[in-house]
Amino acid sequence: EDLLRRLPGLIEDRALAAVIAEEMARAMSKWPETKQSNAITNPCPKCHRQMTKEGVCTHCEKVAANRIAVAGLISELDRKGPLGIGKGWKDRTEDLGTLERKAVDDIMRANPKMNVEGSVATVNIEQLQHAIRQHGNAKKEAKRNQIAITREDLRNIPEVLADYDSIDAGKGIGEGKKQEAVIFRKSYPDGIIACVELDVYNDSMKKRTLKFQTMWKEEK
To answer: Which of 8, 9, 148, 181 is most buried, with most CB under 10 Å away?
Structure first.
């Protein structure tokens, strides 16, 4: 079942992944009753997770809603201005929801110092601007053997966090001090997007959060 969830990240040919997922689901449906209860009998054609009886994939719905939320933050970048003094502008943070069980396990496997049980993922405008400022210049990124990120890349943050290919341990700076972090990576046709996520305590939310810090794009 874990392999079935990972198929989209393991096989670039989505059509082939869908065929394999269907065959795996059919095979699992023949297991004893204790196994069958956990089988994916109605896989989503996009992410291959279990859909509801009504044919709704809650995972894909969540990613789509989070893309809209992040797009709203990106639209504020022009109003903010490079110095953060745009008229009527103020920083804003979006809650992208509680981490899924698989993400929690993969994060804690990559960085055992991060206990992210019950944590939520967050993104704010300040860090989106930081990412563009630090990794949006083509000449500077070329010297790093990387590709300059764009606002379209920023829009993919929810997808990178939800349907990542890998998670590795990292380090970051948050709230003026060193923080434990992980790096989510996901491959796209034009490069590999890497997102650094910090483990911090959010005072307003009164809980630990996985906070977006920055993004860059690596060459394949």
So the answer is: 181
